[in-house]
Design brief:
It contains four helices and eleven strands. By secondary structure, it is of the alpha+beta class. Strands 1, 2, 3, 4, 5, 6, 7, 8, 9, 10 and 11 form an eleven-stranded antiparallel beta sheet that branches.
Length: 241
């Protein structure tokens, strides 16, 4: 029952994001904040969640390849974002990670990005018997930066998210995870020495399938709440060492 409710919530929240962003007028500061967020890993790359059952495994180090893409209305085309993330388990239920990546498109200037994340497990409730799934609530704190390849454009972001996940055991000890992540992010854009920015709400959701031997495959989508905001779709692969 819990995983059905979360699946319904995922669909509802991604769908309602269209209404949220349509109701959010975009002033100069809001546009600057939005631009900074989508230039940095928190907005440019797909999110995914490693739940307590995964964190409790013997693996202490993991790596992930993340790819995200989006189109902006009346924009220069499709933006492609590629990032590599390294993760280290500090203690039980606490993980730190760092990301480097780049953004590219056919008709625009590319950029480089980097970010760090700290993810903590706030609540873990195991399934009751053989029915239902584990429930996890986490806290994720993220910071990021980006720099255009040639022009004097820089971006910074800071975000706090509360991911909620339901995980279902699969054959051969694999794990299927469905998650929903609301977050608030502050983006700051600097162009030719002039700085501006604003906070933005982000809603994201996704799913992952992790195998007992360490491989994980992930798919996610998220949207920053602002008028004409694109929905970013992404895929990822992770490996626990």
């Amino acid at each position: 029952m819990r995983h059905r409710l979360l699946l319904n919530a995922v669909v509802a929240c991604i769908g309602s994001a269209t209404t949220v962003q349509a109701q959010t007028a975009a002033g100069a500061s809001e546009l600057a904040g939005f631009t900074a967020i989508i230039l940095t890993p928190v907005g440019a790359l797909p999110h995914f969640m490693l739940v307590r059952r995964t964190l409790d495994s013997s693996s202490r180090v993991a790596a992930a390849l993340r790819y995200g893409r989006y189109n902006i209305s009346n924009g220069p085309g499709t933006f492609n974002n590629l990032g590599l993330t390294g993760m280290v388990k500090i203690t039980r239920g606490l993980m730190a990670s760092a990301t480097v990546g780049q953004r590219s498109c056919e008709t625009c200037e590319g950029s480089k990005m980097a970010g760090v994340d700290l993810t903590a497990s706030l609540l873990h409730k195991e399934a009751s018997g053989d029915i239902g799934g584990d429930t996890d609530i986490g806290l994720q704190i993220s910071g990021g930066m980006a720099k255009a390849n040639t022009s004097d454009v820089k971006a910074r972001s800071f975000a706090v998210g509360l991911p909620l996940a339901v995980s279902l055991l699969q054959p051969e000890s694999s794990l299927l995870t469905v998650f929903l992540e609301p977050s608030i992010a502050w983006g700051t854009l600097t162009t030719n020495g002039v700085e501006d920015g604003a906070p933005r709400f982000i809603i994201g959701a996704g799913m992952g399938y992790t195998f007992a031997f360490g491989l994980g495959v992930h798919a996610a989508a998220h949207r920053v709440a602002i008028e004409d905001s694109p929905t970013q779709f992404g895929l990822g692969m992770s490996w626990r060492f």
